[in-house]
Amino acid sequence: MRFAAFGQAKKEPDIRRILHDKDLTAHFQQVVYMTRQTVCGLEGLIRGFEGGAVIPPKALFDAAAKKGLTMELDRLCREKVLEAFGHIYQKNTDKLLFINLDASVLDIAGRDGYLLEQVEKAGINPNNIVVEINETKVLDKDRLKSFMERYRTAGFLIALDDVGAGFSNLDRIPIVKPDIIKVDISLIRRIQDNHYKREVVKSLIRLATQIGAMVVAEGVETQEEAMETLRLGVNMIQGFYFSRPAPLSEKPFANGRLADFAEAYKQFAAKTVRQERRISSEIAAIARKALAELSGQKDFDKSLRNIVGRHTEVECAYVLDDCGLQCSDTVFGAGRNKTRENLIFYSARHGADHSMKSYYCQIAHGKRGKYISEPYVSLATGSLCVTFAETFKGADNKRYILCMDFCGAEGNSLYPPSAAAILADGICDGSRTSAADQQEKREPADNGDEQKNDIK
Ligand SMILES: [Ca+2]
User: Fold this and answer.
1) Exposure of 68 by Cβ count < 10 A (0-12 exposed, 13-18 middle, 19+ buried)?
2) What is the number of structural domains in the chain?
3) Judgement on whether residues 167 and 289 belong to the same structural domain of the protein
């Protein structure tokens, strides 16, 4: 069912009537536990209807706030969700129900035990409930902390919702100590094309691993987004690509897309590994030739110019002595622009000291005498690159270190390819998601941010 088909209510909802008549409907969206290839739970969402039109959750909550009825609405939303889930719970005691809690209502005194009562009344074990804390502003942090402790002790799981949206909510991580971090749609949308989003999500995954939490990618709408988030290490995925919010169906945990996606992902993962291997061997081949050319030389600059001139994949190259001091220029390939040069970002020059940099330490103190970095954005040029470094002997028989930044020449990417690149390469031809299909999938979210507003 497409909610957009109903049209959205224009005037302010009559919140007193809605609360009085309990005129809200619970909808549910699947949360997919990817590595286990299963739907592990449902997020409960709420819909109001007036005169045949949908009232988005935000409009409901705005209207309630004006009348001082936020807590009443918040409670009714959960009552509806718990009641509906309660009907299917006995046959699905291994599944989770994610429920949203507007943390701003935690500031309202005298409500601390209410959620537990509601859950018990619905006959659901608290172990099956994930409480999503989804407001950026909690006025009373002590109250939030004591709420968390109480509910965790009672067996609830705690999720931090919409992480990465709006104001930073990272300060809540030590307070909430979440079991689950839900990464906001704004960081997921077109993540396959955006190095910065990828790195932010990778950081959140690293953080979650360190604090023993799971990561859910929210708002996944396309196959590329699903693959990229999964490749980065996200545990669970939620979004229109796998399911849209809807009333409970006969089989609320079935998903027809899961098996096909798992198959496509396995091919994608295999191809990623092959591509990474190809990239490493290309880098190794260029590096071998460069090292042979530099070995026994005195004038490194001339050889570096030859090397960089021959290989468009090499963004720049330079040589360090055994103490980490740069003993050549930083030689750039033709056409590389250095637009980012300023007082803090600039390419190192002859005589620069690299001895505190991690790649130098790895080579100087490690056994292998070579190093290759993760992809990163070059501080000198702003390009996405990887740095390769390896030792060689110069004319004076002393040890030197060749450093080369590799960067994808046009049409010849030398860093691990994005999901988009791999998909464009035709790996997932068997997939059901055509470009037109995806355009259709994305449309509702671009129209009034429906997906974002669902999450209440
Ligand atoms: Ca949520």
Assistant:
1) exposed
2) 2
3) no
372/385 Cα distance (integer angstroms): 11
Virtual torsion, Cα 332, 333, 336, 341, nearest 10 deg: 0
**Centroid of ligand 1 to alpha carbon of 161 (angstroms):** 5
| 6 CA to centre of ligand 1 in angstroms | 23
Dist. CA 275 → ligand 1 center (Å)? 36
Q: Record the pTM.
A: 0.78
Q: What is the pLDDT of residues 73-116, one digit of tens each?
A: 988 999 999 999 999 999 999 999 999 987 776 655 445 678 88
**Domain check: are 288 and 220 in the same one?**
no
Give the Å distance between the CA of 100 and the centre of ligand 1: 5
| CA–centroid distance, residue 444 to ligand 1 (Å) | 18
Q: 116 vs 83, 113, 127, 129, 178, CA distance in Å?
A: 14, 6, 11, 10, 18
239 CA to centre of ligand 1 in angstroms:
11
Residue 448 C-alpha to ligand 1 middle, in angstroms? 18
